[in-house]
Amino acid sequence: MTTASPADELALLTRLRRDLHRIPELDFDLPETLRYVCGELEALCDDVTARYGKDACTVFSPCKSSLCMFFDRKSEHATAVRSDMDALPVTEKSGAEYASCHQGHMHACGHDGHMAMVLGLAHHLAESFDELPRSVLLVFQPAEETTGGARFICESGVFERYGVDRIFGFHLWPDLAMGEVASRPGPLLAATSESTFDFHGKATHIAKAADGADSLEAGMRFVLDAYGYMAEQAKAEPCLLKFGLLQSGQARNVISSHTHIEGSLRTYSDTMTVTAKQHLAELAESRAAEAGCTCTVHFSEGYPPVVNDEALFDLARAALPDLHELPEPLLIGEDFAFYQRHLPGVFLLLGTGTGIPLHADTFDFDERILAAGLETYKKLVRIP
């Protein structure tokens, strides 16, 4: 079969991305998205099986709201490539002619682009099936933005059944130049843990403050001390704790009996995660006791850190001479981390060059960047 020209590939990527951008859906509730992706994959699979036999290609769902396509080259091991499919509960204000048709939902994090690249790769693999050095598994997962759909893919056993020994994935990244591909060995993205602290005191008029227990003072002292503690920890290993919400009290002249504080902890290793949570809880309890208060502390499980396998990264770097290596890890989280807990994986970033932040209601990008992502995938699946 004739290989598609760059112009044809860009037209394909643009069509796929814009079609998918119009139908954003959330979490595991992805009926239109799944129908669209499945339709594309099954048409390609029919073509491959017509040329190479019924076992050459299969399309299936390993778990809820997911799709996989397997190109079977009868190799001992296979390479996996992942795309997320879910969108965000954001009302789009981009003004694009291909804007969301679903009120209150938007592909504001680039998952439409992620799907377009992997679907574009599926087209390429169908065209060049007999040139592949190993089998390839394409994975389309739900719920990256919410509960971590990657975890359910791993638990399905699909990687073991198909002999997958490595996985690659992309995320669009506004802070990189248009079309630039970047990553780094080792830690790339942070573990995330939503952190909640409640200080319980005793209300009284401020004129009789000694009779009360000031939860607001305890909470404020804790915030400042927590920031100081994390700043010291960051000297040894990158980490961050920031609070974005503090609610306390009922009136200006009444000692507050309850202070509620919410923030997010970001770390890059299990050791730092465990250590920071332990010490922050101890610090909260200490500041509460000093003020005659009690406290409750909750840390969400969150996503693990995205840590690129160094041996696989070396293979990727050799295949990608233009790969830009980032000097420091970044502070966002991504559920690709669950795959890397299961098998060696490398996650990459693809620059949009726009500077419009992820999750913004005006997020958009030039589809020409997707061609750079597709070319990267073509090289990665050809690593023996």
What does this 3D model show about the protein?
- Its cofactor is Mn(2+).
- GO terms for molecular function: hydrolase activity; metal ion binding.
- The chain is an alpha/beta fold.
- It folds into two domains: 6-187 and 306-380, Zn peptidases (Aminopeptidase, 3-Layer(aba) Sandwich), CATH 3.40.630; 191-299, Alpha-Beta Plaits.
- Helix content is 36%, strand content 23%.
- The protein has ten helices and 14 strands.
- The chain has helices at 6-21, 31-52, 111-127, 149-155, 158-161, 215-234, 270-290, 310-319, 336-342, 368-380, and strands at 57-60, 67-71, 78-84, 135-141, 164-173, 181-183, 186-189, 191-200, 240-248, 258-267, 294-299, 306-308, 324-325, 345-351.
- The strands form three sheets. An eight-stranded mixed sheet has the order 1-2-4-3-5-14-6-13, with helices on both faces. Strands 9-10-8-11 form a four-stranded antiparallel sheet, covered by helices on one side. It has a two-stranded antiparallel sheet with strand order 7-12.
- A hairpin with a 6-residue loop joins β1 (57-60) and β2.
- The longest helix has 22 residues, at 31-52.
- The two termini are 23 Å apart.
- The model has no long low-confidence stretch (mean pLDDT 97).
Nutshell version of this structure?
With 384 residues, this protein is an alpha/beta fold. Helix content is 36%, strand content 23%.
Flag low-confidence runs.
Answer: none
In total, the number of strands is 14
Number of domains: 2
Measured as a percent range, the helix fraction is 25-40%
The number of helical elements comes to 10
- The class by helix and strand makeup works out as alpha/beta
Q: What is the rounded Rg?
A: 24 Å
**What's the CATH architecture of the largest domain?**
3-Layer(aba) Sandwich
Strand adjacency order, main sheet: 1-2-4-3-5-14-6-13
Q: Based on the structure, what is the oligomeric state of the protein chains?
A: single chain
Straight-line N-to-C gap: 23 Å
Cofactor: Mn(2+)
Keywords: Hydrolase, Manganese, Metal-binding
Binding site for Mn(2+): 109, 111, 145, 171, 359
GO molecular function: hydrolase activity; metal ion binding
